[in-house]
Design a protein that fits this description.
The protein is an alpha+beta fold and about 260 residues long. The protein has five helices and 14 strands. About 50% of the residues are buried. The structure holds magnesium ion (2 copies).
């Protein structure tokens, strides 16, 4: 086996290791809920980042995203047409915005990763429907994800919920295995064909993370080199959970908030 092949191997976790991932998962879920409570018009994206910086410092938790490949913030904050990897700038939220917050935590060397899209003030019914459908697509993927199913079964379940609502599935950014590293094999696309792709095995821990768009799902990256936006400027939503496959049952969510 070459080094490259070894690097691409799925790292299966024991039950004890999955238990060791729980504190990081819980921290991310709980902190996202707290950030959700802070959202109102006038709040700066950097205020949200600072809240997590302070909390993690107080609890001696490693902010997984800060410095990851040079990423300069502790949260990703992506507003409206921004899909993922947005910067936590001095921008102030406005009534009617939607904001996707993606957050990681590393505790005792294990990583949790989760994202949610929130409404700021009163949003349009179409924006609310996008949030509902994207969340529903994640839950559909999680309910299918279990030992013995194929990668394409999970992607298809996510894709069907998004596309049957008339929305677009972002293809260029995908879910992933997770453990001691935030990004481990395999990649987990949010589309797929049933009965195809890798078979899910006991001990796999995955971050499933559908990104949906009201318009065309083609993407572009802003000049900051990070922020991914819809090419057509349409609204986008993103929901993510870290889930574990440890028994003959639907995947267990580690990042419940
Ligand atoms: Mg994430
Ligand atoms: Mg992720």
């Amino acid at each position: 086996m070459t080094t490259e092949q070894r690097a691409r191997q799925v790292i299966l976790k024991s039950d004890a290791e999955i238990d060791m991932m729980r504190p990081a998962g819980r921290m991310v879920g709980e902190t996202l809920s707290e950030l959700g409570e802070m959202l109102k018009p006038g709040v700066k994206l950097s205020d949200l980042d600072q809240y997590v910086i302070d909390k993690y410092a107080r609890l001696d938790i490693t902010p997984t995203f800060l410095g990851y490949q040079g990423f300069p913030h502790t949260i990703c904050a992506s507003v409206n047409e921004e899909i993922v990897h947005g910067f936590a700038t001095e921008r102030r939220l406005e009534d009617g915005d939607i904001i996707s917050i993606d957050l990681g935590a590393t505790i005792n060397g294990w990583v949790g990763d989760s994202a949610r899209t929130f409404a700021v003030g009163t949003i349009t019914s179409e924006a609310q429907r996008l949030l509902d459908v994207t969340r529903e697509s994640l839950m559909a993927g999680i309910s299918v994800a279990r030992i013995g199913v194929r990668k394409g079964d999970i992607g298809a379940a996510i894709q069907e919920v998004i596309e049957s609502a008339g929305y677009g599935v972002v293809r260029g950014y995908v879910g992933h295995g997770i453990g001691r590293a935030m990004h481990e094999p395999p990649t987990m696309p949010n589309h797929g064909r049933r009965g195809t792709g890798m078979t899910m095995r006991r001990g796999m821990v995955l971050a499933l993370e559908p990104m949906a768009t009201i318009g065309d799902p083609a993407t572009a990256v802003l000049d900051d080199g990070w922020t991914v936006v819809t090419a057509d400027g349409s609204l986008s939503a993103h929901f993510e959970h870290t889930v574990a496959l440890r028994q003959d049952a639907p995947a267990e969510i580690l990042t419940q908030g």
